Amino acid sequence: MFEKKGRTLLAKRKTLGTIKTIRTKKVRKMEGTLERHSLLQFGQFSKLSFDNRPSSSNVASSDSSELRSQLVSVDADADCGEKEFILSQDFFCTPDYITPDNQNLMNGLDIIKDHSPCPRSPVKLNTVKSKRCRQESFTLNPLNSSWSSKHRVDEQENDDIETDEIMVDKPQANQTERNGYVSQTAVALRCRAMPPPCLKNPYVMNASEISTDPFGYQRSKCASFLPSNMGGNGLSRYLTDFHEIQQIGAGHFSRVFKVLKRIDGCLYAVKCSTRKLYLDSDRRKAMMEVQALAALGFHENVVGYYNSWFENEQLYIQLELCDHSLSKKSSLKVSEREILVIMHQIAKALQFVHEKGIAHLDVKPENIYIKNGVCKLGDFGCATRLDKSLPVEEGDARYMPQEILNEDYEHLDKVDIFSLGVTVYELIRGSPLTESRNQSLNIKEGKLPLLPGHSLQLQQLLKSMMDRDPTRRPSARELLDHPMFDRIRG
Ligand SMILES: Nc1ncnc2c1ncn2[C@@H]1O[C@H](COP(=O)(O)OP(=O)(O)OP(=O)(O)O)[C@@H](O)[C@H]1O
Ligand SMILES: [Mg+2]
User: Fold this and answer.
1) How big is the chain by its Cα radius of gyration, in Å?
2) N or C end of the chain, less CB within 10 A?
């Protein structure tokens, strides 16, 4: 019965939301314009050499008309909204696309004299704010550092003009406010320029100094918008930053790829959620894995965490690349010495994790990786806090003790010790555990069959790790102090 319950709980845990947010026509249209936008920028503007570009005042009219005809040819069928997108000042607000010379070129094109029926951007009132975004982006972007200071000077010189612009536009903006019109492109671009939401990491024990959110106000407008849209329309961070080599693993929720990071030339693992995380609640749940990894920090026996981001409603996690998981070894005969090494290394990982006030709750061979002969605990997708301040979502029921299936969460650290015991037992058996009721019952009762070829000392230790009573199981520290490990201590 408990096994069934365990599976049910597991199923409960594994159920990530699948409700799809209906993407409105407006959003689709916006994506279209973004694509066109990129096309214009990369396909058309790139034809102008930065080095040879003329200053704004010297843009030859022939150049202007040539560029204009290029623009027209690309966007001949664009509707009025798309024109607005290209010509609006919002176009120049995004760090990704901004080039001050484009602004000058636009002046050269004499856009003001363009009497085509494009509505003027209603968000022009925010010129000052937009300019600040631009300055920041240039200052921060190392690729632009060589001319960012020049640009800043230019902008300061143009300050008066910008102010005048605001004053002239005011009545029009008021009218826009009355109409209640908000440009979707403006929203999209503002959000792209916005930093991602700052969240309190619930796994960090003493988080008082990082509990404030410097972007709380802005975030409230864009928080749910950011994860679903960043990275779309060809702006894939994954594809831009990494070269995918091959898939190296798959779990219930994710696929893991071996990748080469283009900028540093090093190999990493990138874990990508298979389901689209449309709901905020799903995203937050998925983010707990990276929050736990980030809160933990470095340990030799914990898989290294580098980075994470959302892209196309999926969570990507850049991790230390390991050779393979321990489950590969489950089908091989492992010597007692090897068993002791694995046990000792994972006990060290657990001691580290528990000392940080965190329980892993999904220790099993598939979640222990080997790199150059060193074991690393991975997959913190079920990690929770020992003090029960976070929800408990236990992992694979085959490795769970009875108390957790009874929803008794008093000794979550001892849950990990039990799971490590079952993991080692599986390694000694040399075949993966089945979901058979009898086998599961015996394991959860701590009734282990004799393990021929293995020392009584090891068998007794395993028995204590899998004791039905969690208080009688050794802690990770006690495990490490066990005299049996003297045999492998160097
Ligand atoms: N850093 C890594 N290096 C090498 N292989 C990895 C790494 N991370 C994961 N893998 C491989 O990918 C598999 C799936 O990864 P992981 O367990 O993290 O995914 P999951 O979807 O959370 O799994 P689960 O079904 O256990 O919840 C692992 O069993 C392992 O074989
Ligand atoms: Mg896993």
Assistant:
1) 29
2) C
Residue type, position 306, single letter: Y
- Parallel, antiparallel, or unpaired: how do β-strands 242-250 and 254-261 relate? antiparallel
Per-residue tokens: 155: 């902008």
Residues at the binding site are 271
Report the binding-site residues for ATP. 271
Q: Are 243 and 262 in contact (CB under 8 A)?
A: yes
Task: Give this prediction's pTM.
Answer: 0.63
Distance from C-alpha of 330 to C-alpha of 343, rounded to nearest angstrom: 14
Ligand nearest the Cα atom of residue 254? 1
What's the CA angle centered on 211, arms 206 and 212, to 5 degrees? Answer: 155
Q: Which atom of ligand 1 is nearest to the CA of 254?
A: 21
- CA angle centred on 327, ends 271 and 273, rounded to 5°: 20
H helix or E strand, kind and range, residue 478: helix 476-480
In this predicted model, what pLDDT tens digit does every residue of 173-207 receive, in sequence order? 445 445 556 666 665 555 555 555 677 889 987 75
Q: Which residues are catalytic?
A: 362
At a CB cut-off of 8 Å and minimum separation 6, what does 121 contact?
84, 88, 89, 90, 183, 186
> Kind and range of the H or E element at 154?
helix 145-157
